[in-house]
Write a structure and sequence with these properties.
The chain is an alpha/beta fold and about 850 residues long. Helices cover about 50% and strands about 10% of the residues. The strands form four sheets. A six-stranded mixed β-sheet has the order 7-6-8-12-15-16, sandwiched between helices. α27 links the parallel β4 and β5. α8 runs parallel beside α10 and α16 runs antiparallel to α17. The protein starts with 12 loop residues before the first helix and ends in a 14-residue tail after the last helix.
């Protein structure tokens, strides 16, 4: 039912490549014979698909010209010939499409009009890439085609129009709109023909790949592989799709590199046999498969031959390979980079970055920064057009390597130049927690905040207190792609104090990722000695930072990156044993310096009362979870110490503070009236993190009249936590899926999105008895009116002095603004007794070693 694309990027390639229509001739020669008669619909052109087109394109064009000599106005042949010229880089005029469109409309040939409209959209997008415009001008025509399909009423045309919309938006990198088109496809009833199912699956696969969901992309291409004939072009294209997705997964350590190489070579042989230059919007094809091979293998004689024999000035892959060579190859890379055209199209930010990367590598700092700034600005423009938060986060993750590469290039060039340092800090902040920052800026309590979301260094410095430093980490863990093939860079920590901005190198991501994971497992499960890991990670991460700090600094606000989101910083130690970092510094964690500034500049809520909710043995929440199967495998430990712990919170605050435990501790108790009068909310309950669906992570309270008792991340926003301190004394409240750039999508993040100023969270499972001891010490300190950060630091030091191992205190962390004071100090006459009771209480609490945890007994969800 439609037109062809084979050699470039369009919407329609999959349709002809996979058509199994019985109306189409059975062989290519028969197709050409029938075509000479000049069919009066597009149906007769279906046979001009991939078989024969690359090697017999001239023959096909000769047949079409012969048709037009006999019938100069034949609209179908005219449109088809125009498309073929376009794909072969020939000149095409708008009237080659607009005049046939007028014929179809005059003859009321609505299906042909619809298909020709999509062909004109194709023409506009291809032309747009060549003459530095965009596909945007084709949007009205695409919308008209969509309306026409609906008026015709053919379900296949309606589905095809949605697929075209989805492909157009992918091409424009308007991923929110592409997601809406995909949802429209999800809701369409009926069973479309095979060719349309294949085109739809190919489009979905391309979208999954563009948004970084390589598992789904591979599954979709694998489905195409199973659904297409083994000798067909669509089968070879599907094989290349599987190979490409597997290669991307291999870069992330999620697939075997040898398997990826084997798949690439197999796909390349099939593509070369059938002459598939490009397919599925340029997602796959011989050029792309060779590019993946170069990216996977790096600089080898084979890949150098590919680059030298077929150098593409627009291909960052070629530039990166050349930059790794001797000086004459680096000079060639610079010449190629300087031949790149300028663009104002957000889709080609990779071209600007390639220029910046080469310029900075060869020492041209000013030019490198100019082009790097342009690459970032193009991406900022792109993300400003997205409406869906999830799509924004996926886009930020997909393009994070642009920010990371530019940042690393700047600091590799000079980590002491103030221009480079200030630019690197800003670029880092443009990558971090942007969706959360935008959420905070949209809240009513942010009125009066600067319109510019990324603050200037002067604003950050003015908000720092004496003895305080901000440390922002960049962990170099490259995830190369064809557009961004960069694998060489370094990890850094940027250190901001009231007086200075410094950069120091730290270990690479390939070193830190397994080390943090292994040490965190030991720390969370109390298995084996934690000393070697504490010592190694101190050397790799914190020693360079602490060595560069002024001696008066006692408080560190850290912006983690990559694996460092799961690192218990204050349990690191030069010797692996005490003294720990916690003995010297107060540590707090923030998702970005920009978010931190918003929290610190927010008007402080008046120190007030506490509300504590506790899941207790007599409560119904645990029983409900077991009997209803809410948590697989359905077993939760009984929590013996939560009531005592929650009572500590209430007792540390003035009269009127409220403890809610057992059957009464339901989500419904978090009423606006209750929350309005408190400055701290303490949850002593089970916590379950959902790595697949972060909005489904939850705290388990008692079941109410109409619910299971789960307080999910998705529900947290229903409440107003503005300015409050939230204590999440439960398992895994600061863990969840990691979105590169955005950070961890955890329970704690949900409370920040709801307005909280400080959250105390956990990095793993935590023991019930340990929490009881730690929070006894914490609330004894908080009673004195100190800040959240000071209280937690003092509590940890008290446990260290009592001999408690790091596992008893290190996985509890302070997030957000650690200078918040949720409780006013007592009058002097009432301050003496907590000091006397603290030491004894800690020793007693540590002596009680109940085995229950605040999470499932078996495996975490």
């Amino acid at each position: 039912m439609l037109l062809i694309q084979l050699i470039r990027t369009g919407f329609l390639s999959g349709l002809i490549l996979t058509s199994g229509s019985t109306a189409a001739p059975s062989s290519f020669d028969e197709c050409l014979k029938n075509l000479r008669s000049g069919p009066d619909s597009f149906l007769g052109y279906l046979c001009l698909g991939t078989p024969g087109l690359p090697e017999r394109g001239s023959e096909v064009m000769a047949v079409l010209r012969s048709v037009l000599r006999r019938k100069p106005a034949e609209p179908h042949a005219r449109v088809y010939l125009a498309l073929m010229r376009l794909y072969r880089y020939g000149e095409v005029e708008d009237r080659d499409f607009t005049e046939p469109l007028a014929v179809f409309e005059r003859n009321r040939a609505w299906p042909d009009l619809f298909l020709a409209q999509l062909a004109f959209v194709e023409r506009s997008c291809l032309r747009g890439l060549r003459v530095r415009t965009t596909c945007a001008e084709a949007k009205p025509l695409l919308e008209q085609a969509d309306r026409l399909a609906r008026s015709i009423g053919d379900p296949g045309l309606v589905r095809l129009a949605a697929i075209a919309r989805m492909r157009w938006n992918i091409q424009m990198q308007s991923f929110s709109a592409a997601r809406r088109a995909e949802k429209d496809l999800d809701s369409m009833p009926g069973h479309p023909p095979a060719w349309l199912r294949v085109l739809e699956a190919a489009t979905r696969a391309r979208f999954a790949s563009q948004t970084g969901d390589e598992f789904r992309a591979r599954d979709l291409y694998a489905g195409l592989l199973a659904a297409t004939p083994s000798d067909s072009a669509s089968h070879a294209a599907a094989l290349a799709g599987v190979a490409g997705a597997t290669t991307r997964m291999a870069f992330e350590g999620l697939a075997d590199r040898r398997e990826a190489e084997h798949l690439l070579r197999t796909a390349l042989a099939a593509e070369e046999r059938l002459g598939i230059v490009a397919y599925n919007g340029g997602e796959i094809g011989t050029e792309l498969t060779r590019a993946f091979l170069v990216l996977l293998l790096g600089r080898t004689p084979e890949t150098l031959a590919i680059v030298h024999n077929d150098p593409k000035p627009y291909d960052p892959r070629s530039l990166e390979v050349l930059l790794q060579g001797p000086q004459e190859e680096q000079r060639r890379a610079l010449d190629l980079a300087r031949a790149l055209p300028q663009h104002d199209d957000p889709r080609v930010s990779s071209i600007s970055l390639a220029r910046a990367h080469v310029e900075l590598a060869v020492g041209s700092a000013s030019e490198g920064m100019r082009w790097g700034d342009e690459a970032i600005q193009l991406l900022e423009t792109r993300r400003s057009h997205e409406e869906d938060d999830e799509i924004r986060m996926k886009g930020d993750s997909t393009y994070a390597l642009v920010y990371r590469t530019y940042l690393s290039d700047l600091l590799d060039r000079s980590s002491s130049d103030s221009r480079h340092l200030e630019k690197a800090w800003r670029v880092s902040e443009q990558l971090r927690a942007r969706v959360l920052l935008e959420t905070l800026l949209s809240r009513k309590d942010s009125e009066g905040a600067p319109a510019e979301p990324i603050p200037e260094l002067a604003d950050l410095r003015s908000a720092l207190h004496p003895g305080e430093a901000l440390v922002s980490f960049l962990v170099w863990s490259p995830r190369p792609s064809l557009e961004l093939p960069y694998t060489r860079g370094h990890s850094y920590a940027l250190i901001l104090t009231q007086e200075d901005l410094l950069a120091v190198r730290i270990a690479q991501g390939e070193t830190l990722e397994p080390a943090v994971k292994a040490w965190g497992g030991l720390l969370g499960e109390r298995r084996g000695s934690t000393e070697p890991g504490a010592r190694r990670l101190y050397e790799d991460v914190l020693r360079p930072v602490l060595h560069a700090l002024p001696p008066e600094v006692q408080s560190l606000t850290l912006v983690p990156d990559g694996p460092l989101h799961g690192l218990a910083f204050d349990a690191l130690s030069e010797t692996g044993r005490a003294p720990y970092v916690a003995d010297r510094y107060r540590i707090s964690i923030v998702p970005s310096a920009s978010v931190w500034l918003r929290l610190r500049k927010r008007p402080r809520v008046q120190s007030g009362l506490a509300l504590a909710l506790a899941s207790t043995p007599e409560g119904g929440a645990v029983g409900t979870a077991e009997t209803r199967g809410d948590i697989e495998p359905g077993q939760l430990a009984v929590l013996l110490h939560t009531r005592e712990e929650a009572q500590e919170a209430v007792d540390a605050f003035p009269g009127g503070s409220l403890l809610v435990a057992g059957h009464d501790a339901t989500p419904e108790r978090l009423s606006p009236n209750e929350l309005r009068r408190v400055s701290l909310v303490h949850f002593a309950v089970h916590g379950v993190a959902n790595a697949r669906e972060p909005d489904e992570s939850f705290l388990l309270l008692a079941p109410g009249a109409s619910g299971s008792g789960k307080l999910k991340v998705a529900d947290v926003s229903r409440f107003d936590w503005t300015g409050k301190t939230i204590v999440l004394s439960a398992c895994d409240t600061s863990v969840g899926p990691l979105r590169i750039g955005e950070g961890v999508l955890s329970l704690a993040r949900g409370f920040f999105a709801g307005g909280a100023s400080a959250v105390i969270g956990t990095l793993s499972r935590v023991r019930d008895d340990d929490q009881r001891a730690l929070f006894h010490a914490f609330y004894a300190e908080l009673r004195r009116g100190v800040s959240v950060g000071e209280a937690m630091a003092a509590a940890k030091r008290a446990l260290i002095r009592s001999g408690a191992p790091p596992a008893a205190w290190a996985n509890v962390i302070v997030l957000g603004d650690a200078t918040v004071h949720p409780r006013a100090p007592d009058p002097p006459s009432r301050r003496w007794w907590p000091v006397a009771a603290l030491g004894a209480a800690v020793v007693v609490a540590l002596g009680v070693r109940a085995r229950s945890r605040r999470s499932p007994l078996t495996t975490s969800a």
